[in-house]
Amino acid sequence: MIRVALAVAAGGAVGSLLRFFTAAWVANHWPRHFYLGTLSVNILGCLLIGLLSGLFLLRTDLPLELRTGLIVGVLGGFTTFSSFSLELLKLMEGGRLPEALAYLLCSLLGGVLAAWAGLALARLLH
């Protein structure tokens, strides 16, 4: 278990740095379109989590540390949107459409509302 946790920690560091450098590169080249960095990592992360999940279903012989380090660590540090997208897809593929829709709406609306509430609270405290 400790080896898997270390793989996740190392992968998370790599993913976070990749996200930072991607966002910095985008902001440097297109300062008006700062959001494209986040959009890019989210779309790329979704592509990669789908690809890796599919490959790992075929290659169960690969070490758990590698599989978990890449998916949970690297992609988790790169973007949590990829995990959200895969979980939503699994719910839909499992025929759990009402639960998938609720998860989608709660995640998007709840996230935006929570960010708004956090900003409002910070302004109140300032």
UniProtKB/TrEMBL annotation:
<keyword id="KW-0472">Membrane</keyword>
<comment type="similarity">
    <text>Belongs to the fluoride channel Fluc/FEX (TC 1.A.43) family.</text>
</comment>
<keyword id="KW-0997">Cell inner membrane</keyword>
<feature type="transmembrane region" description="Helical">
    <location>
        <begin position="70"/>
        <end position="89"/>
    </location>
</feature>
<feature type="transmembrane region" description="Helical">
    <location>
        <begin position="33"/>
        <end position="58"/>
    </location>
</feature>
<keyword id="KW-0813">Transport</keyword>
<protein>
    <recommendedName>
        <fullName>Fluoride-specific ion channel FluC</fullName>
    </recommendedName>
</protein>
<dbReference type="InterPro" id="IPR003691">
    <property type="entry name" value="FluC"/>
</dbReference>
<dbReference type="GO" id="GO:0140114">
    <property type="term" value="P:cellular detoxification of fluoride"/>
</dbReference>
<keyword id="KW-0479">Metal-binding</keyword>
<comment type="function">
    <text>Fluoride-specific ion channel. Important for reducing fluoride concentration in the cell, thus reducing its toxicity.</text>
</comment>
<keyword id="KW-1133">Transmembrane helix</keyword>
<dbReference type="GO" id="GO:0005886">
    <property type="term" value="C:plasma membrane"/>
</dbReference>
<feature type="binding site">
    <location>
        <position position="76"/>
    </location>
    <ligand>
        <name>Na(+)</name>
    </ligand>
</feature>
<feature type="transmembrane region" description="Helical">
    <location>
        <begin position="101"/>
        <end position="125"/>
    </location>
</feature>
<keyword id="KW-0812">Transmembrane</keyword>
<dbReference type="GO" id="GO:0046872">
    <property type="term" value="F:metal ion binding"/>
</dbReference>
<dbReference type="Pfam" id="PF02537">
    <property type="entry name" value="CRCB"/>
</dbReference>
<keyword id="KW-0406">Ion transport</keyword>
<keyword id="KW-0407">Ion channel</keyword>
<keyword id="KW-1003">Cell membrane</keyword>
<feature type="binding site">
    <location>
        <position position="79"/>
    </location>
    <ligand>
        <name>Na(+)</name>
    </ligand>
</feature>
<dbReference type="GO" id="GO:0062054">
    <property type="term" value="F:fluoride channel activity"/>
</dbReference>
<keyword id="KW-0915">Sodium</keyword>
